[in-house]
Prior knowledge:
With 80 residues, the protein is mostly helical. The protein has helices at 3-25, 36-39, 54-67, 69-79.
Amino acid sequence: MPRHRLVANQRRDFHHHVARQLVSEYDLVCVEDLKIKNMGRSAKGTVEIPGTNVAAKGRLNRSINDAGWGQFVSILQGKA
Length: 80
């Protein structure tokens, strides 16, 4: 099995476990309405107005995508 599929399966399994635990323990679970797509946008800017901290923004984008926030919220909604 390719590594990326293994990591994706582990992440999905973790999301299911955490979502089940939250739904079991709490009567009310609130999730902030984050605009994940907007958070993942590039910081490159334009030729006239170049972006700042482009490398740091790139690392943040990878971290956001790696965490799978959108997938977790979907799983949480399904279990709730």
